[in-house]
Structures are given as structure tokens and as C-alpha cells.
Amino acid sequence: xxxxxxxxxxxxxxxxxxxxxxxxxxxxxxxxxxxxxxxxxxxxxxxxxxxxxxxxxxxxxxxxxxxxxxxxxxxxxxxxxxxxxxxxxxxxxxxxxxxxxxxxxxxxxxxxxxxxxxxxxxxxxxxxxxxxxxxxxxxxxxxxxxxxxxxxxxxxxxxxxxxxxxxxxxxxxxxxxxxxxxxxxxxxxxxxxxxxxxxxxxxxxxxxxxxxxxxxxxxxxxxxxxxxxxxxxxxxxxxxxxxxxxxxxxxxxxxxxxxxxxxxxxxxx
Length: 269
Fold this sequence. Notes:
- The chain is of the alpha/beta class.
- Helix content is 42%, strand content 23%.
- The strands form two sheets. It has a seven-stranded mixed β-sheet, sandwiched between helices. A three-stranded antiparallel β-sheet has the order 1-2-3.
- The longest helix is centred in the C-terminal third of the chain and has 23 residues, at 196-218.
- Residues 13-23 have low confidence and may be disordered.
């Protein structure tokens, strides 16, 4: 696609995120690879199966622990109330769910919704140890077809997972569908650092240090090469806001964290 392995898709105006192949088959990105859309879900499942047991540890190591602050700020931004029902799409090991459960109290509940059983199982011990254990449940399912009725939840959130959904807009559309009118959607996702010098350091770290640590600790350089590639093929904040508005959300905003490495997106149904 390009000779620069560090490219950001947003810098290539003529390269769409998804599109038909010459054969008429729709493609999706898996990292920098463009693959048949029908293959992406299984590749994502294999990817997270390979990292599930070390997922939380690697997140803390690779982010120097800052991901906890990003997640806390994102959940705080949702303005959750006691008694709220919350769905955590692509909720994985449950970090966001645990934070939300503290906000909604004993009267509320949180549903982790994730396609990957290994990730759900990896998060069970820390949820079981928490005071919120009885208020958090997990459902295995595809974000593109959420198995709840319309207008079920007061809030819907997704943290660092929507870029792995094969049809991202379909996933967001499902989140909007299960939200009650007036409910809030929050998306926390990685993005492009705003400062050029910082972005250069970030590229070096992403494509040299992270894969090396992935190989040494998890035994998979490939898994931690895919991670930075998937970040760089995700829409930039302004583009994502337009997508969310197109799905019917209003009051759509975004807030950058740590020079734009992470971004909180919010919208109201």
C-alpha cells in the first residue's frame, strides 16, 4: 500500500478503509493488510486468543500504566448515574465495566459484550474479587449484532475495541440501537499524536519496542505489530465524529488525552 510502514491512513486521501475488490468482494483492514471482509472476524479472534492471558499485563507495561487514567477519565466523562444500565461493547477483561459499576451503585448493572471467550475468561478473576462482582455479567456475542432489544441501556461504551470490529459503523449502529433515547455513547480509542516530534517517538516505540516486548513476553511479535497498524488505519477524531453524527447521535464531542495518543468520543441518542 505504501513504502512507509508508519503511515497513517488519514494521510492517504485516496485509500479507503473498506471497499470492494475487483471481484466485487468487500475488503476490510487487518492491520495494514486489506483482506476479504469475511475473514476479519476469525483473524481478530485468533489474535486475541493469542494475547488474552497476558492482555492486562501488557496493556499496563506498554502504556506505563497510563491506560488506567485514560479509562477512568473516559468513564467519568459519561456522567453515569446510580441505577444506570450500561453495556460495555468489546469489553474484554472488564476494566471499563469495573469503573462503570462503581458509578452506578448497587441499583445498576453492567453487561460486558465481547465476541472473544478467552478475553472474557481472562477478566473473570479480577471481577470476582471486586465489590461489583454481582453487578457485572458477560455475554459472548458479535458487536455487529447485539442480542438485546432496542432502547435497553442508559449508556453504551467501547474502549480500544471498535477498530477490531469488521464493520465498524455496523457496530456503532448497534450500540445506538440498544441505547435508550437520551442515552450516552462513549468510544475510547487510540489516535494520532498531535505533536510531530512526539509522533516520531511514538512511531519508533510502536514499531520497534512494542513488537520486541510482544515477542519476549507473549511469544508473538506479530500480535504487537498488528496493534500499532490497526491504530493507524482507524479514523481520526473529526472523521469519527462525523460517522457518529451520521448514525443519529447529537452533541458529539471528542477530547484528546496525552497529546492525542488516546481520544474520548461522546454522543447522545
